[in-house]
Write a structure and sequence with these properties.
- 30% of the residues lie in helices and 16% in strands.
- The chain is of the alpha+beta class and 115 residues long.
- It has a three-stranded antiparallel β-sheet.
- It is globular.
- The chain starts with 14 loop residues before the first helix and ends in a 20-residue tail after the last strand.
- The mean pLDDT is 86.
């Protein structure tokens, strides 16, 4: 016999409150951006930015900045973040294969038993 259990916890009284909670928890504003990093974000606003090689210091530094923040979703070498930039809130989808090939493990690998 299969038993399924479901528990619900109210996290917000309505959609607006839920959106506020997600923004407060997840949105971040990158600081101390170089001109090249701002150009990357501006290009992304206008459509998309593609790094032409893995030897792109400005993009690599942006990847490190994003990865240091809480993502809405991470999957291998990509993720989705809420970003405050240029006076607005943006949903940023970042694919960074070649700049950071994989996500760091959530927990360190288990150590083999001694003995």
């Amino acid at each position: 016999m299969l038993t399924v259990s479901v528990e619900l916890d109210r996290v917000a009284p309505n959609r607006t409150a839920l959106a506020d909670r997600i923004r407060a928890r997840s949105a971040f504003m990158p600081t101390d951006l170089t001109a090249d990093q701002r150009a990357i974000l501006d290009a992304a606003i206008d459509g998309e930015y593609r790094a032409e090689s893995s030897d792109n210091a400005a993009f690599e530094e942006l990847v490190a900045t994003f990865r240091g923040q809480e993502a809405i979703k991470r999957d291998g070498s990509s993720g989705t973040w809420l970003v405050r930039y240029a006076g607005d809130l943006w949903l940023a989808e970042l694919r960074y294969y070649g700049f950071a090939d994989s996500e760091p493990p959530a927990e360190p690998p288990a150590m083999p038993d001694e003995g």
